[in-house]
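We now fix the convention by which a protein and its fold are recorded. These numbers are not coordinates but entries in a learned vocabulary of local backbone shapes. A record is reproduced here so that you can trace the correspondence yourselves:
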Amino acid sequence: MACGSCSTGKDGQPKGCKSNGSCGTDSCNKLSVFDWLSNMSLPNGQEAFNCVEVRFKNGRKHFYKNVEKLSLQIGDIVATEASPGHDVGQVSLTGELVKVQMRKKRVKEDSDQVLKIYRKASQKDIDVWTEARNREEQIKKRAREIAIRLKLRMKISDIEFQGDGSKATFYYTAEDRVDFRQLIKEFAYEFKTRIEMRQIGFRQEAARLGGIGSCGRELCCSTWLTDFRSVTTSAARYQQLSLNPQKLAGQCGKLKCCLNYELDSYLDALKELPKQDSKLQTQKGTAVCQKIDIFKGSLWYAYEGEWMNWYELKTDQVKKIIEAAKNKKPVASLEEFSAELEKENKVDFGNVVGQDSLTRFDKPKKGQQKKRRNKRKKQRKKRPKNNA
């Protein structure tokens, strides 16, 4: 969903709004929200909801009260309350849909978490904000050098300056607890600003930095996914995936979030299938399940001691064999059920309309022509000569 400024230009080439993630209609932003209530008017006498959603760097969002009754639209740059000073962000959502989002995230309107909006950002506010944002990459490089010199086992992944430049938040990841008291002292002396250290998980780091996944699309966590549910290896086992960490792990080093997307469909399909650990009792012997195809409804069994010979059975056939074993009337063998399945799958393709050979117009290969010539020469030499 792109804005009008990003439409196609001359010769089919994209124009591009060149706003670098600050699109006026909030359609090109990370974790943008479509306001589907924007074209609906409020009933007479009802006031608009006085809270708005403001987006900051890398998808960080908070709710703020519009105490001054400002006329705000999506894309407006506003100065918001912060501790200390003020912060500068961009309005990402207004109107009644903000109430829905607050209820979804369990944020109350009168909560202390909901701060207030001071004003629309002036040109001076925007200049200070832009200047602070331009310093972030240089400071991040220097901060990593200091952390390495102090031999701290941590990774500084991102830096975010407050809108007025009075505070810098350092986001870092670490497997163990880190004592960064000396680090904060050196940061404060080096960068001459207030320092805040905030530890984030590896999934949150990938969401902030963004990237391209193995599917060729942007990472889900950096575009639309806001809640990070736990992903276990059982999700891969239910989907019959090989437990290869190189394929199952994302850029964060954890299991991919998309393993949970189709898990419910697999679990529903598995309810119709017999348990994989159940053995089949036959007169010939006991068979053990070796492989399962969930959506085809096929199971492969092999006799104990004859592990190389697999027999494909359908779900209803397996249930019939299990039911017969419960009634103490086991079937003779699995071969009779597997033979029935082969007869059903066998398709006889006949030449019913008189098709010719597909290679009838192909030229014979040169090697075959030489063989034929040599064969004819040998036959001529073997012929007896008539004495005249």
Summary: The two ends are 97 Å apart (CA to CA).
